[in-house]
Design brief:
Strand content: 25-35%
Largest sheet: 3 strands, parallel
Order of helices and strands: EHEHE
Low-confidence stretches: none
Number of strands: 3
C-alpha cells in the first residue's frame, strides 16, 4: 500500500509533529508499506499535494493550530 505521511507544519508543535511523522513512517515501512514522508513546512509543499493523490492513504501527523 502506498501511504503519504504529512508532518511538520509551521506551528509551535512542528518538532513534535516531525518526530511523530517519522515514527509513523518508520512503523509503516517496517510493516511493508511504501511510504513517503512529506514535511508540510510551506506553501511550496502544499502545492505538491495533488501529485501525492495517487497514494492509497494519507496519514496526517500534523500538530498545532494548522494541523
Amino acid at each position: 500500500m502506498k501511504i503519504v505521511v504529512l508532518m511538520g507544519g509551521n506551528s509551535s508543535e512542528r518538532e513534535v509533529s516531525l518526530r511523530s511523522g517519522q515514527a509513523v513512517a518508520k512503523g509503516l515501512r517496517e510493516a511493508g508499506h511504501e511510504v513517503e514522508a512529506v514535511d508540510i513546512r510551506s506553501v511550496a509543499e502544499v502545492t505538491r499535494l495533488p501529485e501525492l493523490a495517487t497514494a492509497d492513504v494519507v496519514f496526517p501527523a500534523l500538530h498545532g493550530g494548522q494541523g
